[in-house]
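Form 12-C: Joint structure prediction
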Amino acid sequence: MSQQEIDQLVDQDYKYGFVTDIESDTLPPGLSEDVIREISTRKGEPEWLLEWRLEAYAKWLQMTPPDWAHLEYPPIDFQSISYFSAPKKQGDGPKSLDEVDPALIETYNKLGIPLEEQKMLAGVAVDAVFDSVSVVTTFKEKLHEAGVVFCPLSEAVHSHPELVKKFLGSIVPQNDNYYAALNSAVFSDGSFVYIPKGVRCPMELSTYFRINQQNTGQFERTLIVAEEGSYVSYLEGCTAPQRDENQLHAAVVELVAETDAEIKYSTVQNWFAGDDEGKGGIYNFVTKRGECRGDRAKISWTQLETGSAITWKYPSCVLKGADSVGEFYSVAVAGKKQQADTGTKMIHIGPRTRSTIISKGISTARGQNAYRGLVKVLPGAVDARNFTQCDSLLIGDQCGAHTFPYVEAEEPSAQLEHEATTSKVSDDQLFYLRTRGMSEEDALNMVVNGFCKEVFQKLPMEFAVEAEALLGITLEGAVG
Amino acid sequence: MLSIRNLHARVGDKPILKGINLEINAGEVHAIMGPNGSGKSTLSSVLAGRDDYEVTDGEVIYMGQNLLDLEPEERAWAGLFLSFQYPVEIPGVKNIYLLKAAVNAIREHRGLPELKAAEFLKLVREKLKVMQMDEAFLHRNVNEGFSGGEKKRNEILQMQLLEPTLALLDETDSGLDVDALRIVGEGINRMRSPDRSVLLVTHYQRLLDIVKPDFVHVLANGEIKLSGDHTLAKQLEREGYEGFEAA
Amino acid sequence: MSGFSEWLADVKDVHAPEALAVGLPTKRVESWKYVPTRGLARTTWQPANPKATEQFALTGGEFVNVPTADGLAVSDNTLTASEQKRIDEINQAHGFGLTQAALENSRLALTIQTTASVVLNLHHLANQANSAGFSTLIIRVEAGAQLTLVEQFESTDADKANLSSLRCLITLARDSSVTHVRFQAANPAAHVFSNLDVECGENSSYRLQTIEFGSKLARNDIYIALAGREASASVNGLAITNGSQYHDTHLAIDHVVGDTNSEMTFRNMVDGKGEATFNGRVLIRKDSQRSATEQSIANLLLSGSARVNPKPELEIYADDVTASHGCTVGSLNKTELFYLKSRGLSEADARAFLQYAFAEKIVEEIEHPDIRELVETQLLGELKHGELIAELKESVDV
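Section 2 - Result
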């Protein structure tokens, strides 16, 4: 694609502006071909996309929910879910922070979230003079100048149909797994990011998100394409607790990194975890995969998973290009009656491909935390390297920590190393800190933060601090 | 015996040796000194044939042969010996197996008859005594669980058994206490002879008090900056490497 | 259909109909994911016949020449309730379990009496072409008794598929100990199945050393339950897989109660077109506090067509525990090779040294000197260029 063409595409994009405004109601519960046609019509999608959704739906009907993760939850009634609802309009929410649940405000304060941002997170109607609007405008201009396309996927379908058509489902095929198939059939919206050749995205796309949080619905779908030599850092989610009336979330994220491109994808997931009995929490069944297509490409996943009743996600890297690099840094916390089953897959195909996996699992209360990962080295991935470290920390005697690392190696020059430990928080460490005047809770916090340090360091700066605070809040009441 | 001409070598894209020239004649003891990161260990590794380094220019002629064309074991057969800065641990293989296999491999290439077990044991006991090592060393796994000093002594023990023509001793003095330093130093001295040369690579001068070199070279930034006799070592000890690092 | 179906259709056993219906496990069964079952399915298996021997042996699915010794008694082979429960679990673990149950030829029960000390040396003789034997050995080790159980396999030339399957149930009463050495060097056409189910009572200790070179296909299912306080288990294993061999060990250690200890070290060396699978699982149950476990798995891949599938698993439901595992995959270490070559060893000898070293870390742990010697000799025979080390051992070991 020539620079001119890209410019054209970019111009087109901004004609529509970033924020979409679809006037519509929520569809009644139920899933059928007709429902999918209706979703597509309401979103004004082109024919090819409707066909694609229907194809995915047909495949989904043939599939069965995965059972290998030993997660405990009642069968999901897919006919009781509503598959389309319009984004909430401003003005529907509370009029001021005074109307917001004080517990939520307290959490925001603990996280150190600025007042104006608190309003947005809580869905309070934002005053027109609030300067985040101008901040958004500035960001838009900067991205536009760089030639970066960053818009809702539903909009990219119209503004960049050939790119969407080319890449959608190219990394996570429709029938990759049960929930990916469902997502492909009914996906609501998500982000589309395109970084042209040689462009270093001028800002963390996280920054943008923080002040322009969109309700992307329960079947989010994200596609990021980084052309040759480009770089982007993207952050999804939010440290603030997110509530949602939809219990099932099945997202799909696809990343494409061409030669010398780098994508850094960070997630902070704090969906409602349910009550102490696990009632009402979100089921977060996510498929995330990136492909390093070109030589020396790099994809790095960093995640902090504290929310959801059930988390089922394995952000993966397919390392095709020679010397390409995959990374996975994860902190997963399972408290209350949460079940977290997360990990990664690193598929080494190209020569000298390298991957690093650092996973820190923390289990408290009656939480069950599992690392499940696969490192696969195909013949020809000469001198491939992997280092995996999975550490689990147990706080309390009702929780569980599990490690299931699969390795399949077929290349003799590959070198793979895996280490894992499981232990409880050391009484000696806690005691030592308390003799130095810290409360038991602060001491625990310090130890746990130390345990997670390696991963937090990988988060974008502004989120690292909040991530630590979030961890502290999550662990409240874990001792004593 | 050894002439190094305009030797350039790099690791990855990083040039380490940038044109080394050095002549070592039979019977001479040379010391290469220099600050950390100057390329000292690279030089001895390149000479012994480690393939982590890529030679980009220059040549090394050892006893009329192009040394760089030879495999590591062929260099050993030709009489080259490298005492490792960090001797490698090989769990599962008894020290004595390695010693005997090495001695006989090299004897075979020198056209000497294989040593029988009894002869070998006699020889090895003699050398153990010199290095003040207990016979138990023979039945421990190669370098496994050895202290730093024991590993270095084991290296010199190997040198005594293999009787090289040219010995490269890479930081053999590091990690040694005073007594071990003396034992190792005397072990090296015993090996000095008119037809054997030694190249000592070291950061400090203390080993050179015991093993007095004929020549001292200062290696900095991949080049030999200065050469002199053993008094140069004393001077470096007093004045440090400061003047050489900048270049 | 071939495989076991004709045989199964002939036998009266209660498990036969279900075994017939279920058939051999497919790749979809997680624990059989990597097992190549084609060879099993292609052969029309028949019952094997016992061969003449003077040793205590398992042949044609029968135990022959059961030794007599002080403290050793042949006991009633009716299963206790607990044994029955364990056998039922093995039957149901995967499709092959039912086949094993249905085709069982013989069952021997031995008791090692209180405070006795017994050495048992069981020889597995090769079965005839296209024939198979299925047996069960029950060993009850009474309080304070000690047993050394050595299993050896006849290594003859064979080019036709043959199969042997042994289920071994060992129950250790309090304060007893078992050292179990299993040396599998079966013929190159053998299919060797082993189910080992061990229950450790209070303060008992079970130590397994398993060395595997032989057979075309070997599958070991090992389950060790630490059911009494202060019980401990340790497993050391080595599998050398070459040619088109497939070796598979699924090992599970279950910390049923607290204050228990386990340790597993397993090494795979894979060359040629060989494939090796090792699944090591440690389960620490709720309330099994103060348990400790350590796992280490090392895998050496020596050829571009070899494949290894190691998987260490930890499943932990108690908090006051220490658990760790490490797993590595790689080829021979370059620095070590360079070191040996710089001492004058040829490339081939240096490689042989390092392969020997890799295996020796497991073999040297075998306390039983005769067996260790036997294993080492065969190990050197297995290695390409192992002659040098063989010669060195001969000459300098006193």
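Section 3 - Comments
Chain C touches chain B at residues 334-336, 338-347, 349-350, 353-354, 356-361, 364, 388-389, 392-393, 395-396 (CB under 8 Å). Chain C is about 20% helix and 40% strand.
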